[in-house]
Design brief:
Blueprint: E1 10-15, E2 18-23, H1 24-36, H2 41-58, E3 66-70, E4 73-77, H3 83-100, H4 105-117, H5 126-132, H6 137-157, H7 162-179
Parallel strand pairs: 2-3
Antiparallel strand pairs: 1-2, 3-4
Helix pairs in contact: 2-3, 2-4, 3-4, 3-5, 6-7
Length: 180
């Protein structure tokens, strides 16, 4: 079910017939961000990611096979990969942005960033999965490479937060090794 080496240290359980797993990298990343975070944004960003995934779950017609928490994000394995389900996470984040913008601007902006970030056509992000519904796999690989180069160029040229570059490279590497 899982690639050996990527998910070697995982805690697993079943809840209501759904396998719930947590990879060592998830705990390591949460611990690292919590230890280094002086702003309180680490836990807020985790909450925003959970809201994103809850958006996917709300629009699924069938319950998922598994939900795995890992350092690169949360992966829901389900048979329902419709356009609505794939877009639901980002749409939920965008709705949270609109709802909370005036009362909690930082929480709202984090929702906007996570929602838009997940629409990028890179690796295993929602944007890539959405495009795969309409574009052949060979074309999708080219789009992935172009998107990665474009994001790296934007980060370098406009001195955007280095964390964005690190996350994109990490997501791309995880996606590459999972596909091997």
């Amino acid at each position: 079910m899982y690639t050996i080496g990527v998910y070697i240290n995982m805690i697993r359980t079943r809840l209501a017939g759904v396998e719930i797993g947590a990879d060592f990298t998830f705990f390591a990343l949460v611990a690292m961000f919590s230890a280094l975070d002086t702003t309180g944004l680490a836990m807020m960003s985790l909450a925003v990611c959970l809201i994103h995934e809850a958006g996917h779950l709300l629009f699924m017609r069938k319950k998922p096979e598994s939900i795995v928490f890992r350092g690169g994000g949360i992966r829901i394995k389900a048979s329902d990969d419709s356009v609505l389900v794939l877009a639901a996470g980002s749409l939920t984040n965008l709705a949270m942005f609109l709802i909370f913008y005036s009362a909690y601007p930082m929480f709202a902006v984090m929702n906007l960033v996570i929602g838009v970030f997940n629409l990028l056509p890179i690796g295993c992000l929602d944007g890539s999965k959405l495009l795969m519904l309409f574009v052949p796999e060979k074309v999708m690989r080219v789009i992935n490479v172009i998107a990665i180069i474009a994001v790296i160029a934007l980060v370098i040229l406009y001195e955007v937060n280095f964390t964005i570059l690190a996350v994109i490279l990490y997501v791309t590497a995880v996606d590459f090794f999972v596909r091997m």
